[in-house]
């Protein structure tokens, strides 16, 4: 009898754990069955107002446009014609294939438009070069894994999307140089906002839906606190990352072999890495990413670092190219998650970096922003009433896996602060698993494909890393270093 009861309890627990994990690992909305970007005769939102004219804001406005009578897009800065409006917009940005798929569905001309600008499609697992401490990742045949990308800068992506949005969706009105300073409504229902323009005039817009896409220092969290004393709880993992970058023009006789070269940092003792990314104009942006260690923006020390640390492929590019402009840097504290799902507020949602801002080295930010818009579209088109809290809860599930992938890896570097006590308890195991994965990435094509697919947030792939094989990697081995003495190799 006791055995039967124990068995039933174990079964019930397993079902609960399975359902919980499945809720996270299969949380993404299926793009293939989504109507995002398509016209709709039914306007489920009267007036929508989106705050933040950067990537999340433009995608959100374009998502809302077919379903709303009028969409206002409010941006505090002047929106430049040919570059990104965001501070980080000139740094290396890799747009994951999953994010590109969403954008291409909203704007069927997106791929043609970026190709016209000079972007070239590449097969991420075949054409790009990734090097870890075990050496180059196992090589894959063209087409294996289906992970792809384009040689394109963040600025170009943003400029093209902005242009397509304004050409396609005529009911979007952009108001730039307009800083949102107040929420309108009550403490449980946002009914609009007030912004201040350059002439210091205060202008109020009434809205049925307010979308906060104002980035990491999101405006709604600040205003909710200031106006109503509501505190949006935050969780942070502080890894103190710095990007130091410079653009280079390859000399005519030098042929760039790989659209992306990626030297992967490795916890715990290799807190730096390098990237070379080919851009649409044929130039390259070369970036050094450092955890916690301040770096100078002196060109000589920047270029020497790649030599000293044996990032030979990047040094080769530098030797065969001419620098364009100076070395520039961007510092970020780490990853931050804002618990909007705890807020029970009508008329308002938040997405993009305003909800979840990652350590950028994992390249997830723009794709998570696009995922947030896909979810919004699905809920609005369902036409079943949903609360804003429900939206935030679903979004939380979508970003949980990318959040865990990014923050778990960061926590393995000594000195990273924050994270849950469970995550911190798991650090030795995660370091061990990371080492196992590093070995496998270099030796096994299958592991390389699995990791790339999951890191690229390809739809419904979360279960790939919870197979018995992967769990064995995480829990099954004793915690002893697997690296041979003399590592790292680069
Ligand atoms: C160095 C670096 C490298 C990165 N690399 C990658 C990468 O490789 N791949 C990737 O996918 N992501 C990357 N990211 C992340 C990516 O940049 C962000 O995820 C993305 O820009 C988020 O966009 P957003 O629109 O949510 O926020 P943001 O781009 O930060 O934009 C917020 C906008 O809101 C505006 N705003 C703020 N307050 C107000 C107000 N009160 N009124 C009106 N407007 C306001 C701001 O001016 C800004 O334009 C990187 C980030 C950094 C820092």
Automatic annotation (TrEMBL):
<dbReference type="InterPro" id="IPR050816">
    <property type="entry name" value="Flavin-dep_Halogenase_NPB"/>
</dbReference>
<comment type="similarity">
    <text>Belongs to the flavin-dependent halogenase family.</text>
</comment>
<protein>
    <recommendedName>
        <fullName>Squalene monooxygenase</fullName>
    </recommendedName>
</protein>
<keyword id="KW-0560">Oxidoreductase</keyword>
<dbReference type="GO" id="GO:0016491">
    <property type="term" value="F:oxidoreductase activity"/>
</dbReference>
<dbReference type="InterPro" id="IPR036188">
    <property type="entry name" value="FAD/NAD-bd_sf"/>
</dbReference>
<dbReference type="Pfam" id="PF12831">
    <property type="entry name" value="FAD_oxidored"/>
</dbReference>
């Amino acid at each position: 009898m006791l055995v039967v009861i124990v068995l039933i309890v174990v079964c019930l627990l397993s079902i609960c754990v399975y359902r919980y994990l499945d809720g996270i690992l299969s949380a993404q909305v299926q793009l293939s069955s989504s109507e995002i970007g398509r016209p709709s005769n039914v306007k489920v939102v009267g007036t929508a107002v989106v705050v933040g004219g950067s990537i999340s804001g433009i995608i959100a406005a374009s998502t809302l446009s077919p379903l709303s009578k009028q969409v206002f897009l409010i941006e505090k800065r002047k929106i430049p014609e040919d570059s990104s409006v965001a501070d980080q917009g000139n740094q290396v940005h890799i747009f994951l294939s999953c994010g590109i798929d969403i954008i291409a569905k909203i704007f069927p001309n997106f791929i043609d438009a970026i190709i016209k600008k000079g972007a070239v499609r590449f097969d991420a697992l075949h054409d790009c070069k990734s090097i870890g401490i075990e050496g180059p990742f196992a090589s894959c045949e063209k087409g294996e894994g289906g992970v792809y990308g384009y040689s394109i800068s963040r600025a170009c992506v943003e400029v093209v999307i902005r242009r397509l949005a304004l050409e396609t969706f005529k009911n979007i009105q952009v108001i730039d140089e307009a800083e949102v300073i107040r929420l309108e409504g009550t403490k449980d229902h946002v009914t609009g906002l007030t912004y201040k323009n350059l002439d210091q005039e205060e202008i109020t817009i009434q809205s049925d839906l307010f979308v906060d896409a104002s980035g990491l220092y999101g405006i709604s969290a600040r205003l909710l606190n200031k106006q109503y004393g509501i505190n949006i709880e935050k969780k942070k993992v502080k890894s103190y990352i710095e990007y130091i970058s410079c653009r280079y023009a390859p000399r005519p006789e030098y042929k760039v072999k790989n659209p992306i070269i990626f030297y992967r940092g490795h916890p715990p003792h290799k807190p730096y890495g390098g990237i070379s990314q080919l851009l649409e104009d044929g130039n390259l942006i070369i970036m050094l990413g450092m955890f916690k260690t301040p770096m100078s923006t002196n060109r000589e020390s920047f270029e020497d670092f790649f030599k000293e640390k044996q990032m030979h492929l990047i040094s080769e590019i530098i030797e065969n190219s001419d620098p364009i402009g100076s070395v520039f840097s961007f510092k970020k504290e780490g990853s931050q998650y804002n618990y909007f799902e705890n807020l029970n507020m009508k008329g308002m949602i938040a997405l993009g970096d305003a909800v979840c801002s990652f350590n950028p080295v994992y390249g997830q930010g723009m794709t998570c922003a696009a995922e947030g818009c896909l979810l919004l579209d699905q809920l609005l088109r369902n036409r079943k009433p949903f609360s804003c809290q429900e939206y935030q809860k679903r979004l939380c599930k979508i970003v949980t896996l990318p959040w865990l992938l990014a923050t778990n890896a960061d926590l393995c570097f000594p000195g990273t602060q924050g994270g849950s006590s469970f995550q911190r308890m798991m650090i030795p195991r995660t370091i061990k698993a990371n080492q196992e994965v590093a070995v496998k990435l270099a030796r096994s094509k299958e592991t390389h494909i699995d990791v790339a697919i999951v890191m690229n947030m390809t739809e419904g792939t979360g279960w790939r890393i919870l197979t018995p094989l992967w769990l064995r990697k995480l829990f099954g081995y004793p915690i002893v270093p697997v690296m041979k003495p003399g590592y790292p190799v680069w």
